[in-house]
Input
Amino acid sequence: MKKIFVTGGAGFIGSAFIRLVLDETSDVEIIDFDALTYAGNLDNLVGLDENRHKFIHGDIRNREAVLNALPDDCDAIFNFAAESHVDRSIHSADEFLTTNIIGTQVLLDAARAKNIRRFVQVSTDEVMGTLPEDDTAFFNEDSPIQPNSPYAASKASAELVVRAARETFGIDAVITRCGNNYGPRQFPEKLIPLMIANAMNDEPLPVYGDGKNVRDWIYVEDHARAIWMVYEKGKSGEAYNIGARNERQNLEVVTSILDSLGKPHSLIKYVTDRLGHDRRYAIDATKVENEIGWKTQTTWEEGLAKTIRWYQENQDWVERIRNGAYRDYYKKHYGMEVGTV
Ligand code: NAD
Ligand code: DAU
Output
């Protein structure tokens, strides 16, 4: 059995990655290390093979806890753990800087102490800032790093500490930079699950600004497979941009959700724009396609239908979140209660 150490495995993408690896391999054992912040959810791990998946509750900023949990014979660290929501980083950047930067450094130090063969840093296209609207420009691996939100700045800084560990200590590291994910088990503070949850409950759908910001959407399983393939085939020191060539304006995404659920467009409510709101993300995935042989397997239409179905069939998962601390965040951020019609 090959052992891998996955941080943030109780979150949206980390849990999808664990599911994929357990389903598509037979010789990999996973140590899943997660602090269970508001975004971490043990419900996301229900049904996993207990012989090959071991959950450890811990914080990547805690050096001793990381060293105790990380086996000496581990082949790789996959760092998914992060504060991941742009809007929360605008309210306060503190946790973003400590988890996303210092936490990454702690993991790199542990990788060095235990001679771990490879370090996989799960980064984001947001480190490259924003692209002009109505342009044909794309982010590629040579695009400058110019983050615009505290979240993006913390992820860009994490990439830099990974680079420094490689240059200084020769740590074998690869970086993945993906666009906007969607799929089952995404916390309903992000656009797609928030809009599905509100639409299912006939509540207003808060669209920022003019609704014309563009995101490049990818189904979470496709992202997870790309990370696994970059781990297996990527060149040390390289970054790989991951995207499904699926640019959509926010309004198009929201109206597609309403149409799929048979709900009226009058539920859309335009609200104050996000501060420093990046206008457009679009990813050129040529490098990961040509060098690694990855390509997306799920179309937008299939992925969105599967996602909506999952939220319809798992309303208890959504309601458990909507009844918790989420209510306070929602009120602070949108100035209205969850459930306001
Ligand atoms: P998420 O917020 O759903 O999950 C984050 C997980 O990290 C949670 O389980 C949380 O408990 C855990 N965590 C947070 N702080 C921790 C700490 N200090 N120690 C240990 N665990 C901690 O996020 P996600 O959407 O699944 O994103 C996962 C990773 O992928 C992040 O690094 C994010 O930057 C990156 N990413 C996300 C997207 C996206 O569209 N969601 C796109 C590209 C990259
Ligand atoms: O691009 C990758 C990034 O995608 C990841 O690194 C982040 O972790 C992830 O959160 C996501 O960031 P975004 O800010 O693009 O995602 P979010 O779902 O928050 O917003 C998507 C778009 O929808 C964005 O233009 C803002 C808009 N939006 C979002 C919310 C929550 C709204 O119009 N209304 C909302 O209520």
Remarks:
- The mean pLDDT is 97.
- DSSP finds twelve helices and twelve strands in the chain.
- The two ends are 52 Å apart (CA to CA).
- The first strand starts at residue 2 and ends at 7.
